[in-house]
Specification:
Elements (H helix, E strand, L loop, with lengths): L12 E3 L15 H5 L10 E3 L1 H7 L3 E6 L11 H15 L8 H8 L6 E4 L3 H13 L3 E6 L4 H9 L3 E5 L3 H11 L5 E2 L10 H23 L7 E5 L4 H10 L7 E7 L4 H8 L25 H7 L2 E5 L1 H13 L6 H14 L2 H7 L6 E6 L11
Parallel strand pairs: 3-11, 4-5, 4-7, 5-6, 8-9, 8-11, 9-10
Antiparallel strand pairs: 1-10, 2-3
Helix pairs in contact: 3-5, 3-8, 5-6, 8-9, 9-11, 12-13
Bound molecules: pyridoxal-5'-phosphate.
Pyridoxal-5'-phosphate binds next to helix 5 and helix 9.
Amino acid sequence: MRPRGDGGQQADWYANPAAASWQAAPLRDQPRAFHRTLPGYAPTPLTPLPPVADALGVRAVFLKDESSRLGLPAFKVLGASYAIARALSARLGEVDALPLHRLRERLGGSGPRLVAATDGNHGRAVAHIAALLGLPATIYVPDGLSSAATAAIVSEGAELVQLELPYDDVVEHAAQRAEGEAMLIQDTSWEGYELVPRWIVAGYATLVQEVDEQLAAAGLWDLGLVVVPAGVGSLAQAVVHHYRSSSRRPAILACEPDSAASVTTALHAGHVEPVHTGNTIMTGLNCGTVSEIAWPTLRDGLDASAVVTDEQALSATRELASLGVDSGPCGAATLAALRAAATAASQRNDLGLTADSVVVLLSTEGTAANPKVP
Ligand SMILES: Cc1ncc(COP(=O)(O)O)c(C=O)c1O
């Protein structure tokens, strides 16, 4: 692995040429079969953006639009629903995830309290699934979350606890509180807490499986690049794992806020190094520590990582809105990262981008997810 910079911008860009040939073992989980049992499941749109492709000199750019996923404005419910179902099914002695209606019957309202820390989307998803199962939920949030995001969590019937702490400390707090009877459903992992985050990551595979089917339906087989937003890196882990264990082998670019560059920092350092986080409009990406189980996969299989400023994310949100696409700052960060990389010769080269490249942007939320944008 060789860290590479672009002139004086080294800290903002990382490329790993060895990632292209790294191979991951296939996952055994079948989250899609479980997701198909959820009320309202349907693949989210894969929207072509011809003006963006023309401007950036590539064959096609598609945006995977997660602004409405199973009734919520972000992708996170894919992981939360699968992990909750796996964890509760395991308690009932089942190896696979039971459909939610079967779980609800079997639990008869006497299951554990579900607990999560969140910077918005994951906690709402946990609260939503708890409500569908008839279970209580407690969701811990850091300060600085928009009132719309906290109201959305409360509207799912969960108990909300707001702490004057940054996200990483809120996770620690929730983990301590969930000891005992309650069940912690956290989308990041640390030593001794790996099983639930593994199921969450497994659940995200549905999103990329849909992308593959949608590209195939459009007659496109050569996928050149996938751009994925990163907070703790669990979604990026799922994307890297999927494409490094499949026949499609696109380059994968992670992007994160410049004020919470935990993945890029860890890649430069060669180990996980928590970073201080500040304020960002990319609220869902405002995480200081890479998930422990994500790290080896990101280190070995991620082709590149880039940081995005709030200004770039905001302008990408507006550009997408002008194209009729509802994308919140975390989702639009992918367009900002693509624009910067596609117009810098050395980064374009790192990603293998050419006039023939097909690019997919994972727009992980709609503007309703966390309306903080000025
Ligand atoms: C909208 C959105 N996009 C992307 C992410 C990043 O996912 P991860 O924390 O798994 O890297 C999050 C995390 O909460 C999110 O809410």
